[in-house]
Amino acid sequence: MDSATFGGGCFWCTEAAFKELDGIESVTSGYAGGHVEDPTYEEVCSGETGHAEVIQVEYDPDEIGYDELLEVFFMVHDPTTRDRQGPDVGSQYRSAIYTHDDDQREIVEEFVAALEAEAVYDDPIVTEVEPLEEFYAAEEYHQDYYEKNPNQAYCAMHAAPKVKKVREKYPEKVTQ
């Protein structure tokens, strides 16, 4: 198994989208990119810890490639807004990729360069790309949040459309 760590706004939404894919062993919501050891959700939400809400994906590279994960990541969030995704505002909702090694960093840089060369977005991509220093799993009640609360208003308005987008765009890669 390999690992990938992405910050694309609220981790509930990103987690739900990635859990749809074949080759994904697990998706854990958590925090990365900050300066406080083992932060709580409340601390991260304050914006004082420097962390982003992220997901850590454990995947089988023989079934799904890192480049395919990047396709999904860039499809399910807006990488052109700084410190914001939809109604969620603050540095904890920034677009970020935390690479696990130099190979991932190189793949990300090439992927972003291709998106920009193709002018996929009207505005420049602001996704931060940093090496992963530490990942902290979020509290248990954040894990599988959409799966446990599909009818909760936030999930219905923000997570469900991302899940639908993945199912429609990648039907051959969606777990049946």
Q: Could you explain how this protein is built, in words?
A:
With 176 residues, the protein is an alpha+beta fold. 35% of the residues lie in helices and 23% in strands. The protein has six helices and eight strands. The chain has a six-stranded mixed β-sheet, with helices on one face. The protein has a two-stranded antiparallel sheet with strand order 4-5. The protein starts with a strand and ends in a 7-residue tail after the last helix. The model has no long low-confidence stretch (mean pLDDT 96).
SSE succession: EHEHEHEEEHEEHH
Number of strands: 8
- Supply the number of helical segments: 6
Radius of gyration: 15 Å
- Look at the structure and give the mean pLDDT: 96
- Could you say which overall geometry the principal axes of the C-alpha atoms support? globular
Strand content: 15-25%
The largest sheet is: 6 strands, mixed
Can you give the helix content as a percent range?
A: 25-40%
Structural class: alpha+beta
- The span between the termini is 21 Å
Across the major sheet, the strand order is 7-6-1-3-2-8
Segments where pLDDT lies below 50 for 5+ residues? none
